[in-house]
Amino acid sequence: MDKEAFRKQLLEETEWINKKIYGFLPGDTTYQKIISEAMEYSLMAGGKRIRPMIMWETYKMSGGKDESLVLPFMAAIEMIHTYSLVHDDLPAMDNDEYRRGRKTTHIVYGEDIGILAGDALLNYAFETAMAGFTDSSNIMLKAGALKILAAKAGVYGMLGGQVVDVLKTGKPVSKDELLFIYSLKTGALLEAAFMAGALLAGADSATVGKFEEAGYYTGLAFQIQDDILDITSTAEELGKPVHSDEKNEKSTYVSLYGMDMAVKAVKDYSEKALAILNSMPVQNLYLNTLVEMLIKRKK
Questions:
Q1: Angle CA(131)–CA(132)–CA(136) in degrees, nearest 5?
Q2: Do 234 and 202 touch, CB atoms closer than 8 A?
Q3: Please, are residues 129 and 76 in contact by the beta-carbon 8 Å criterion?
Q4: Structure pTM?
């Protein structure tokens, strides 16, 4: 896809997604108002909106046309992703003070409200997804998408990867363990975005499975590129601290296998992801370019 056309669509879609996500935030709060403020601060802090964007593009690619069907799930997956970042930044985890170019939630609101803001975003994500169930149409598709979100966020998904990541901090990590962490901690929600978008459009299980595999390879490439940027980029460019993996004594693909092998792995995994997308009967050039952009990003 032409770079200028892609950049234009990326900006337009990001702005559109931001507006839609903002509309799902809780508004009518009283004594607990601070939690809705902390949720908004966390969720609207910027970010690439990659997961809802992938879900939207996969939905359209699979024949989906009803915006109202997929939007609650797009908002929900971004809330789940944001909750994971809020908790990841806490003193008990990575103890980071900056995220997306500004102070992290626990620095602004305190550690207690930071914990509760993450909890609130996770819970509200499922409230948001369930809001679509008031309309009984496409109920099985909605239930299937909800099941994907729950599974990919939980013990067998992102949370499970986070657990192993914490347990292995400061300890030797095998290649299998490292890829396990990456595929769950980073890849699971990307897989969910691909899968839920396709399923909500009515795709069959084989197609949903192919999208899951594309998300798996995208997640590995994305995380290894993140390892590279933690060394080669700057805090100003990334909007968060660099060399945080070294500070937190975490093994990465770069620290285990060196920069050259890491660069090669990013290339290999990205090519596998794109090969799967290119094998689909319907093509989405914007989605393909988006995946390439993610993997080759500089921030």
A1: 120
A2: no
A3: yes
A4: 0.94
